[in-house]
Amino acid sequence: MGRYLVVANQTLSGDQLMAEVRRRAAAGPSSFYVVVPSTPLADAGGRLADVGGAAHGAVPPPSGATAAEDEHRATLVAQSRLNQALAQLRSEGLDARGDIGDPEPLTAIEDALAVQQFDEIIISTLPSGLSHWLRMDLPQRVERKFKLPVTTVTTRH
Q1: Which residues have CB under 8 Å from 18's CB, separation 6+?
Q2: Which pTM was predicted?
């Protein structure tokens, strides 16, 4: 059975990621574990970092929100995205489980690998230029650190 770790946040419900998951499922028995890093909703410039905004459960942080409020809001959004993704995967008959991960995606992946083994890691991210994960070279760092195949799926925006 193929065991896949899927790591995504803003792009979790994207068509490109679902197509990649379906390809793995069509190849044979498989299971998917989805990790949604609980990343802050605003990028470094203070703009809402969610593409699609409210359609994906994002609520802009009120001005003057505390760090704890921002963290709580990020967790709520991540949980909502995770619930929607798991429901979609299961509705297609796929073996899917998941959890919210550390805000730092590399740590979230490391935490998941500490308790389970996977055959491949699928990282879904925003396109180049918008993606913090690509700017920080996340896919290559993950591949080097964990010695597992990594597939990067980027949305088309």
Answers
A1: 88
A2: 0.84
Per-residue pLDDT tens, the chain, 157 aa: give them. Answer: 999 999 999 999 899 999 999 999 999 999 999 999 998 865 433 334 433 333 334 444 455 568 888 888 999 999 999 999 999 999 999 999 999 999 999 999 999 999 999 999 999 999 998 999 999 999 999 999 999 999 999 987 5
Q: Write out the two tokens for 129.
A: 């230029």
- Residue 157 corresponds to which tokens in the numbers above? 């925006």
Q: How far apart are CA 1 and CA 120, in angstroms?
A: 12
Helix (H, G, I), strand (E, B) or coil at 150: strand
Tell me the backbone φ, ψ of residue 128, rounded to 5 degrees: -55, 140
* CB-based burial label for 123 (10 Å; 0-12, 13-18, 19+): buried
Check if the beta carbon of residue 41 is closer than 8 Å to that of residue 156. no
Please name the CATH architecture into which domain 2-154 falls.
3-Layer(aba) Sandwich (3.40)
